[in-house]
Prior knowledge:
Keywords: NADP, Oxidoreductase
Domain Enoyl reductase (ER): 14-323
Number of domains: 2
GO molecular function: NADPH binding; oxidoreductase activity, acting on NAD(P)H
CATH class of the largest domain: Alpha Beta
Protein name: Enoyl reductase (ER) domain-containing protein
InterPro entries: ADH-like_C, ADH-like_N, ER, GroES-like_sf, NAD(P)-bd_dom_sf
Amino acid sequence: MVSTFSALRINTKGSIDELHIEERTIPELTEGQLLIKMEYSTINPSDYLNLLGHYPGGNAPLTGGFEGSGVVIKSGGGAEADTFLNKRVTLLSAGTWAEYIVTDTNLVFPLLDSIPLESAASLNINPLTVALFIEKVKGQKTHSFIQNAAASALGKQFIRWANRLGLVSINLVRRQEQVDLLKAIGAEHVINTSEDGWKEKTKELCKSFGVTCGFDAIGGTSTSDIADVIGNGGVVYNYGLLSGKSCEIGPNAMIFEGKRLEGLWLIPWMFSKTYQERYQVSLAVQQNIDILGTEYNQTVTLPNVKAALALYMQNSTNNKVLIRTTL
Length: 327
């Protein structure tokens, strides 16, 4: 049994330049824990924010990465943990940019035989967040929503799942090539926010479809842009900080139009469920891999993650990175 492994670590949060390969010792497992030989991981905006110190991902020093796939090679004991032994799994856990990881069973999910480990690396953060979004849309008792950053990997998955469920999506992007991209995957309503008059056009669309639910990945004035176009009594859910700026929403929208801003984070929602409920969500994602899968544009090894991360944050459209964690 292996005793040491390589991991991509950071000693002080604040800059991705701090990332480095470090040899680590595999700790002793306690009951309910699993030792997983990592095969693949990926890069998400939350990884970048965590390394900069803008995300509740634990104190440095730490190993990067929040999701991935691999094979369980050892159990710390316990009825639940023992059932995972030798199984291929997908996991949502801090520290996946490594050859091995020790984690609890609560956010590790067995894979269907039909799911490749490469695809399984991205089955958690984006698809499970989309499942949360769908729940929120249905909770608003509406069949429609608006989202920005719609050309992101998550945005495209949201569009596809909405189409499958018969929901109407209004999608905001910044460039014409992104409009073309989303039209090609079945998005009917795509707005280019770099064009004159986009907000008036969007407001009319939202009115015609009764949109009272919006999803904001950007923050800053993009939050108020969504608040301005949704119907009275609506809610803007913020789940990201791509602009690096705090969310803005005007008092008139909140006081006189009854609109509100709420934050959304995947982890509390997942932990509000039993393990069986969490697994059922994961299973639904796996069964809909045709629309919730991720298209990777490049594969890198751990030593090359730093450079790939910098490029990804400059342009995340069609720039999804798969990390091969085995050195």
